[in-house]
Amino acid sequence: MAAIRPFSGLRGRGYGRSRTPARQPDPVPLSASVVDCGVYVDGERLPGKWAHGDAIAEARARDNAFVWIGLHEPNSEQIQGVADTFGLHELAVEDAVHAHQRPKLDRYEDSLFMVLKTVRYIAHESPTTANEIVETGELMAFLGKDFIVTVRHGQHSGLARLRRELDNDPERLRQGPSSVLHAIADTVVDHYLDVSERIEHDVDELEDEVFAPRSLVSAEQIYLMKREVLELRRAVLPLATPLRRLAEGYSRLVPDDVRSYFRDVDDHLTTVSERIGSANELLTTLVDATVAKISLQQNVDMRKITAWAAMFAVPTAIAGIYGMNFQYMPELQWRYGYPAVLIGILLICVMLFRIFRRNHWL
Known about the structure:
Oligomer: single chain
Largest sheet: 7 strands, mixed
Low-confidence stretches: 1-28
Strand order of the largest sheet: 2-1-3-7-6-5-4
Main location: membrane
Distance between the termini: 112 Å
Transmembrane segments: 305-324, 336-356
Function: Mediates influx of magnesium ions.
Keywords: Cell membrane, Ion transport, Magnesium, Membrane, Transmembrane, Transmembrane helix, Transport
Order of helices and strands: EEHEHHEEEEHHHHHHH
CATH architecture of the largest domain: 2-Layer Sandwich
Helix content: 40-55%
Strand content: 5-15%
CATH superfamily of the largest domain: CorA soluble domain-like
Number of domains: 2
Membrane topology: Multi-pass membrane protein
Structural class: alpha+beta
């Protein structure tokens, strides 16, 4: 009797082999997304570099101190350590990681979460040839009693310059982390003012081009400009409600001394909104004017085509009649019949040309 061998048919296909788990990528440390972390006591920044845990411990061991930590495009793993240390709400943390949020202000138990849209004006030679004029980014801020955490998305929304200015103004920072939030909002709205002013200049230049004789500006280019204005509008208009809430005492985290500054920022935002509204209305008018010019030009072209067709119809009709090859036709046997017909065609065409020219069809 033959010995029974163990079944091994699956081994050739790799079923009997031991599998080693795939190597997971090493997590990116939090320091890769931290732009800066500082501890401020009585408005003065303490020297040295701080980890976020040591920074908040140092601030809570002192009076009138807070921490400002800035992050740039962190992922969910990188920001989780900061969220646990500062007690940030998980929903706000999720919004800060995934971005693509509308400007808003959310209040949680002991913190505020604010989203702002940053904008940058892209320089170009002419608004009639530019493909992009406004570039947007996002800036989030977590505000607590003794901390402010800023998270930014995009390459143009850096706060390094603002931090240096505040570091040189300890009197302003003595008001606490809410003063940093005001400085951020004020800086963002100032950029709105600058961008809206430049867009106004572009719209004025576009208006001059549209109403210039023999203008080559197309309706598509005006629609492109209108799209850029609407993108700026989506960044500006939703911010009005958060700023108004901060100015009206929406949270105790913003003291009365700082609320008055938010009113000033809200006034500047109103100016930007008015500029955007005016630019949008003017672009709508330019679109209508461009369409009217196109319709008028088409009518002019159609009249010219009709006039030339009428003049060409004369020799065509005469040539068609004499091309019938009938035997008994007028002047067929006349010696000067052929030049007489040519002269008659020419005279009729000249007469039609003068009539159409007098009526501004040509």
